[in-house]
Each structure stands twice: as C-alpha cells, then as structure tokens.
Design brief:
Elements lengths: L6 E8 L3 H14 L7 E3 L7 E10 L3 H11 L6 E11 L7 E8 L1 H16 L13 E7 L5 H13 L7 E4 L1 E10 L2 E11 L3
Antiparallel strand pairs: 1-3, 1-8, 2-6, 4-5, 4-7, 5-6, 8-9
Helix pairs in contact: 2-3
C-alpha cells in the first residue's frame, strides 16, 4: 500500500453537545422494544449533524478540503439550533427512517451548507441535487419488516411527545474521518473550523 494513495472515508459535520446526545439516548431507550428486532438504532453517542458526506478522499486532498471549508465559513457567526420534533420518512404508516428535525437558525445553517457545497465543487465533489434538510437519523426499519411491524412502530413513534430542552450552539464545523469496523464506525475529528462573524 503506497502511502500517497491512501484514502479516507470522511464527512463534514457539526458536533452535538453531550446533553443533547443524552436526550437522544433516552429517547431511543424509550422507543426501543425487545420485539422490534426489525428496527436498527443509530448509536446516539455517534450522531452528528452532517452537512456533507464526502466518501473516500485521498489523504493528500485533506488540506485543500480544509481550505475550502475555511473559505466557505468565513464571516459566518456561530449559529443557534435546537432539536425539533420526531419525524418518520416516508410516513407513519410505512416508516423506513426515524429522525428528529432541527429548528432555530436553520436559514443560516442552510446558507452555510450551500457555501460549503459550492466551495467543494471546484475540488471535484458533486453538488447536492436535493435541498438540504437538516435532521438527525435515529433509526432505520429493516427491509424485511412486515406492514404490520412498520405500522406498529409508526404508531409507537407518533405516541411519543418528545421535546428537547437543550440548545445546540454551533461554534465550529468539523471534518470527520469515519472508519468502518465490524463493531460499527469509529469517528475521528481531522479538523475543526471555528465560526466567527
């Protein structure tokens, strides 16, 4: 393996405060049922607000990427966000994905995401076709789940009245390395770009 051709699987994301991760962990505990083996939960300790997934990038491209992130976030002050209510995609009768929305200064967040997106186009990354909807994925329903299973899970989710009590102050953006292992992904922060007006 030549060192200069080494690839890193990475993404650009916002780190969530510990107390918000704890809330999401409690929420997952509340929704987890032993007979719902068809639901695959995301480890709440590992949830990030992803702005852009980069996939495998050559190690030597990392400085250029960090440069692009710095350019894109110049002059953008820290943002204030909060976790909004639970949602299911595509709908509660046939849920495939369970997520929580993000509210607060989402316009600024979307603007920041677009700037990062365009800054990376010049480095050969493709621009997102779909509009960026900030959310955090909590669980996925496995392909094999029956209609009744799905409906039951959807009803359970809809019966929960979840309200987050903690703000998310976004002071920085991170480039994160994701290493896939049999035990799950291991995340390492490669770089932090501070937001400042």
């Amino acid at each position: 393996m030549h060192h200069n051709s080494e690839q890193i699987r990475s993404f650009i994301a916002i780190e969530l405060p510990q107390n918000v991760k704890n809330e999401l962990a409690q929420l997952e505990d509340e929704l987890e049922r032993p007979d719902h083996r068809f639901v695959k939960w995301v480890n709440p300790r590992a949830i990030h607000l992803t702005l852009k997934f980069l996939g495998n990038v050559p190690l030597k491209q990392i400085p250029e990427i960090s440069n692009a992130i710095e350019r894109a976030s110049k002059g953008i002050p820290p943002l204030h966000l909060q976790i909004a209510s639970l949602g299911v995609f595509p709908n509660a009768n046939r849920p495939r994905v369970l997520w929580v929305g993000i509210k607060g200064e989402t316009d600024s967040l979307q603007g920041l995401q677009r700037k990062i997106d365009s800054a990376l186009v010049s480095l050969g990354f493709t621009e997102e076709k779909r509009p960026f909807t900030p959310h955090l994925t909590l669980a996925r329903v496995r392909e094999g789940a029956s209609i009744i299973d799905r409906k039951g899970f959807g009803e359970l989710v809809m019966s929960i009245n979840f309200e987050s009590k903690h703000p998310i102050s976004v002071e920085a953006i991170n480039l994160i390395k994701s290493q896939l292992t049999p035990e799950g992904a291991i995340y390492t922060c490669l770089l932090t770009v501070k937001l400042q007006a």
